[in-house]
Amino acid sequence: MGAGRLGAPMERHGRASAASATSASSAGEQAAGGPEGRRREPLRRRASSASVPAVGASAEGARRDRLGSYSGPTAVTRQRVESLRKKRPLFPWFGLDIGGTLVKLVYFEPKDITAEEEEEEVESLKSIRKYLTSNVAYGSTGIRDVHLELKDLTLCGRKGNLHFIRFPTHDMPAFIQMGRDKNFSSLHTVFCATGGGAYKFEQDFLTIGDLQLCKLDELDCLIKGILYIDSVGFNGRSQCYYFENPADSEKCQKLPFDLKNPYPLLLVNIGSGVSILAVYSKDNYKRVTGTSLGGGTFFGLCCLLTGCTTFEEALEMASRGDSTKVDKLVRDIYGGDYERFGLPGWAVASSFGNMMSKEKREAVSKEDLARATLITITNNIGSIARMCALNENINQVVFVGNFLRINTIAMRLLAYALDYWSKGQLKALFSEHEGYFGAVGALLELLKIP
Amino acid sequence: MSWPGTFKMAECGASGSGSSGDSLDKSITLPPDEIFRNLENAKRFAIDIGGSLTKLAYYSTVQHKVAKVRSFDHSGKDTECDHEPPYEISVQEEITARLHFIKFENTYIEACLDFIKDHLVNTETKVIQATGGGAYKFKDLIEEKLQLKVDKEDVMTCLIKGCNFVLKNIPHEAFVYQKDADPEFRFQTNHPHIFPYLLVNIGSGVSIVKVETEDRFEWVGGSSIGGGTFWGLGALLTKTKKFDELLQLASRGQHSNVDMLVRDVYGGAHQTLGLSGNLIASSFGKSATADQEFSKEDMAKSLLHMISNDIGQLACLHARLHSLDRVYFGGFFIRGHPVTMRTITYSINFFSKFDLLEMDRLERPLVSLPLLLDPPSYVPDTVDLTDDALARKYWLTCFEEALDGVVKRAVASQPDSADAAERAEKFRQKYWNKLQTLRQQPFAYGTLTVRSLLDTREHCLNEFNFPDPYSKVKQRENGVALRCFPRVVRSLDALGWEERQLALVKGLLAGNVFDWGAKAVSDVLESDPHFGFEEAKRKLQERPWLVDSYSKWLQRLKGPPHKCALIFADNSGIDIILGVFPFVRELLLRGTEVILACNSGPALNDVTHSESLIVAERIAGMDPVVHSALQEERLLLVQTGSSSPCLDLSRLDKGLAALVRERGADLVVIEGMGRAVHTNYHAALRCESLKLAVVKNAWLAERLGGRLFSVIFKYEVPAE
């Protein structure tokens, strides 16, 4: 079995990498793995060009070629952007990322509204602005992450604040209904949306809300969003950070990281599933692989094993549990380290391995199980990310996605595992706006910001 | 665990738990005396105690019945008595070495050790080789129970040694699985060039090892998500405690009820995007939403998918990192389970075959025929029945229909045995069940070919102590044919050269009609053997034959003699004595040396090496040409190393291969349906070859474009 063979099924799917942020493992075979990652083209070029290279073209040579051919289209784009800036889109400015579990919405609230504008502002627009900015919760499930709000941002010549809102994907129908009730369609705005849900709910937006979605590629949006957010910082603080002494609760410190040399970069987006991208420049990146063992797996398994109902609850339980009661460690088998292979005794030999025994099953708590689930999923992501970094010869790895939200355990574990197994060669980086980059990218597309 | 049979091991388990206070759920159900076969004579032990399972191998001697032939003492006897058999047959108990493999859960280790201790009658063994993490943990227990010194071996060193051994020696040990290919499995024939490869050993966890040479390897990575995760997490999720039951649950489940698929995220749009909607976006992603109930089956399936995909992906990443294109998966998690296999897309070690496997004749290594044109690409079998549904259906039916006859023959071969009928019935059941399994799962036992069907039947017969059901038949036929030999040779010698060559070839072919299947023929033989032989010649298709390169062969014979001919003989009786030997005699007279290769052990009515020795001796007594050739070692009788009605040229006795090299064989003659049609029909050799057979099966004849008793005469000269 060649590594190439493994990847083959994926390549045949044509635009398969659009499965991206939610990752993709095939039902029947491992398709997400392997070197199938293909070079990505920026959306515009891909959409307009019939000469899209064969999807299988992942060879080094192919990448170089395309890199070289870039200057033309980019220049053209820039001109177009210049002209478009004068005709910036009407408010409201939204960016939407509809994932498998969560919908991420970014909303730009203009703060430089003139009295004249205020007067002209139609009622529906005003009501949206007030509704979104004066609340921190919407319905029973929608939440505005106030702490993430980016203040005094200049976008397309307008000053304002950027708001970050999320709600579960299963409430999407209610959201569309709200759009209908608040008469969004009368605003003649364009809804830029990315994520699988942009496709899934497109028809509902149209028929129920009378709204036309502008569907955007989610990996393009993701990259764009990350680069943009990193460039604007976090209200004067650094967007990017890392952990020092991640294994030591006493000494562990979260420290800012200056991503001034971002490339090459391995980007690990942990949503319901996981996508891993190798980013070489703003326009040049490829999806390396993905795994279906992601945040959805952690939460799904936790629900089944502990009966918890929210992600927060799952994490809270995990924080109180002890995974070593559930997992079989190297020392449980070898009595200590397995020196021949340099395996430390504390390493997990078999996740949930102790649960083969009835007595041990009866002796564990729900908290222990939640912790073990978290450790299992996180370690696995770390391990795959590390392999990808080695294969791609990249040493900075940025982990993003909503799995990491309020999930210090996972972040510290990723940081530690990457450092330990790479003997200090790899650095795990994180970003404050974790899961919102796709939505930000969608907003930037709306504003035609390159 | 798919132990054959449905025994319960409750008694064993009850006494086994307790000491550690940590019992695993039962999954093995077989009473120890069925598991530990031939234990009393166990010579060497090796034990591998993993995180959840203990794997035990022991080398022991086994007694089983073998049919022996022994020549009567003919010195002082010049005249033949017409009704005296040419040699005597005795069924003897033979002691051979066998390697046994056993697997049980760690919980039972104490009980199993007790059992071993009680049943270990006579062993000189003082040491037990132990490996695996558990070797450290259970060392004292083993030493105390068995009074053997525990010699700890490194687990990975053992794993690699074992893996190298089976990859090299067990055919179809490894195979490639590709989901949408037809067939889904491709089995690899084993050859010595196995390095470098990546070994992914899936036990409780996963170890990934890069193997570069016989003893150079390196642990390159691993994963904690392995068989133990499937078992442990599966037990939590489904309340199902047995590993096997979890696998069964999984095989009935629908993972799409639990997993979030791409189509769940994208809606119907995945089609227009060219995405496969069946890709898993998030394992267990659906169980995160509502407080919905999920079926055990669906969860087990989802879990299996999750773990298998994950392992496959890691293996792939490692293979890429180390630029290896061969990855072998092994370990108990694989176990030949179809769902696992479908999920991993892999080439793996078919360890499931080893659950209760016993390997004989380890002391005689089998090697490739030096004359094969391209040993790595050689595939013995002409038709892969996993590939060819029509042929598979036909042959399975054919073997089913023939089963009654085989059972009768087996019973008749042991008239003095009280339990022959009972054993024959057990044989019938076992073989029948295998055939039924193959109807459902053609890949169940590795690759499926006519050869594997024939070989499996021989193995089953042996297992129930029918070592040679045809021994009496062969004895009688050999006797009859020997009496005809002088007459046949005289009439051949009376012919002119060119006429004689054709008559010799026809004789070879006619002899080949005398498969025991052709029942009518044997009746005729009894009354007038010579007439029977002539009758058979008349039955043959007239020239031009179905495949006919006789003219080319004749032309060749007009040229210089071959240096040495290697002949693979087929049937006992008429075939070997009146067909092959006159042909051999002619070659000898031309100045060609002859190596006559016969099976090491019995199969159908094929002539065995020991029978061929007696036959040759008797012919030498009648014929000075054969006599002097034997004395001067211009005629050599060797064994093939096989007990199959077919022929695998990549697995021959070492002695044969050495002799072929030493004598510079430049002609290979392969005779009979099993050896020249079912196998080797397309085999390419580096020297001249002659493949001849009479197609004695109407269906096959039709498939080849001919009729019953069509003749295959395929003379090939390799391209310069």
UniProtKB/TrEMBL annotation, chain A:
It comes from the Eukaryota. It catalyses: (R)-pantothenate + ATP = (R)-4'-phosphopantothenate + ADP + H(+). Its main location: cytoplasm. GO terms for cellular component: cytosol; nucleus. Its EC number is 2.7.1.33. One of its GO terms (biological process) is coenzyme A biosynthetic process. Residues 16-33, 48-60 have a biased composition (Low complexity). Keywords: ATP-binding, Coenzyme A biosynthesis, Cytoplasm, Kinase, Nucleotide-binding, Phosphoprotein, Transferase. Gene3D superfamilies: 3.30.420.40, 3.30.420.510. It is an enzyme of class 2 (transferase). Pathway: Cofactor biosynthesis; coenzyme A biosynthesis; CoA from (R)-pantothenate: step 1/5. Residues 1-74 are annotated as: Disordered. GO terms for molecular function: ATP binding; pantothenate kinase activity. It is found in: Cytoplasm. Homodimer. Belongs to the type II pantothenate kinase family. NCBIfam families: panK_eukar. This is pantothenate kinase. It comes from Cebus imitator. The lineage of its organism: Eukaryota, Metazoa, Chordata, Craniata, Vertebrata. The gene is PANK2.
UniProtKB/TrEMBL annotation, chain B:
It is an enzyme of class 3 (hydrolase). It comes from the Eukaryota. The keyword ATP-binding applies. Its main location: cytoplasm. Its cofactor is Ni(2+); Mn(2+). InterPro entries: ARMT-1-like_metal-bd_sf, ARMT1-like_metal-bd, At2g17340_3_helix_bundle, ATPase_NBD, PanK_long, Type_II_PanK. It catalyses: (R)-4'-phospho-S-sulfopantetheine + H2O = (R)-S-sulfopantetheine + phosphate; (R)-4'-phosphopantetheine + H2O = (R)-pantetheine + phosphate; (R)-4'-phosphopantetheine sulfonate + H2O = (R)-pantetheine sulfonate + phosphate. Phosphatase which shows a preference for 4'-phosphopantetheine and its oxidatively damaged forms (sulfonate or S-sulfonate), providing strong indirect evidence that the phosphatase activity pre-empts damage in the coenzyme A (CoA) pathway. Hydrolyzing excess 4'-phosphopantetheine could constitute a directed overflow mechanism to prevent its oxidation to the S-sulfonate, sulfonate, or other forms. Hydrolyzing 4'-phosphopantetheine sulfonate or S-sulfonate would forestall their conversion to inactive forms of CoA and acyl carrier protein. PANTHER family: 4'-PHOSPHOPANTETHEINE PHOSPHATASE, PANTOTHENATE KINASE. In the N-terminal section; belongs to the type II pantothenate kinase family. This is 4'-phosphopantetheine phosphatase. It comes from Cebus imitator (Panamanian white-faced capuchin). The gene is PANK4.
